[in-house]
Design brief:
Number of helices: 3
Number of domains: 1
Distance between the termini: 39 Å
InterPro entries: VWF_dom
Domain VWFC: 88-168
Largest sheet: 5 strands, mixed
Keywords: Signal
Helix content: under 10%
Number of strands: 18
Order of helices and strands: EEHEEEEEEEEEHHEEEEEEE
Organism: Tenebrio molitor
Oligomer: single chain
Protein name: VWFC domain-containing protein
Length: 228
């Protein structure tokens, strides 16, 4: 059992969405169990409503639900099993996988398992969205309104799980033209959709240094940070 302020297990029941929206970093919202909101005629969410982004002395939050400290979720929710017999093989992009073997593919936020019945379509029950576990590892940073950082270029076709989180030092100043009145929160500051700021010589994980980072409010309530 996993213990991190609350005893929480990962559910495996998900729906598979098209990858087009993942370039905007929506996987982290799905991982949090946030509720998407859409503008008329738009395929991708324009914002999310999320539980657990504010500090709480009584609850932990995971996938949109509140749990009391030391409360455990049914352990069966964490189980992921398939009736493998070792006979089936899957071929993906010219590579052969044995039944039960995991695989993923480029420009996707899906993790897949080779099993009987796979016909080359990346859909359930063969594939599921990647689990980031951000609320388990980085709950304190999330509640401080830090921003997910993806060590990819601005034009990356997908943003899956963040590499780390960037927190405010209070010096950030928004630039760019606001596209709506919806806002992202970063530390104690708010930025309208379309506004951005840059940071230089960002260091994380054992001294790893990024020369330039760009953070932008794209889909509230979190800022999105990538290599600048």
């Amino acid at each position: 059992m996993l213990h991190l302020e609350c005893l929480i297990f990962v559910t495996v029941i998900t729906s598979i969405l098209g990858k087009g929206c993942y370039k905007n970093g929506i996987l982290i919202y799905e991982d949090f169990g946030c509720t998407p909101h859409y503008e008329d005629g738009k395929d991708c969410p324009s914002k999310y409503s999320c539980e657990g982004l504010e500090p709480s002395s009584t609850n932990c939050y995971f996938r949109g639900k509140a749990y009391k400290h030391n409360e455990a979720v049914d352990s069966s929710l964490a189980s992921l099993s398939y009736p493998f017999d070792g006979i089936e093989k899957c071929v993906v992009d010219g590579t052969e996988y044995q039944e039960g073997e995991k695989f993923s593919f480029e420009n996707s936020c899906l993790d897949c398992v080779c099993q009987k019945g796979f016909k080359g379509k990346f859909e359930e029950p063969f594939c599921r969205r990647r689990k980031c576990g951000g609320q388990l590892r980085d709950g304190e940073k999330i509640q401080k309104h830090c921003a997910p950082f993806y060590e990819v270029d601005l034009e990356s076709p997908v943003l899956c799980c963040p590499d780390t989180w960037i927190c405010s030092d209070g010096s950030e100043s928004g630039k760019g033209k606001a596209k709506s009145e919806e806002t992202c929160k970063f530390g104690e500051k708010t930025f309208k959709v379309g506004e951005a700021f840059e940071k230089y010589d960002f260091t994380y994980d054992y001294g790893r240094k990024i020369a330039k980072v760009k953070c932008e409010c794209v889909i509230p309530p979190l800022m999105k940070c990538t290599k600048g």
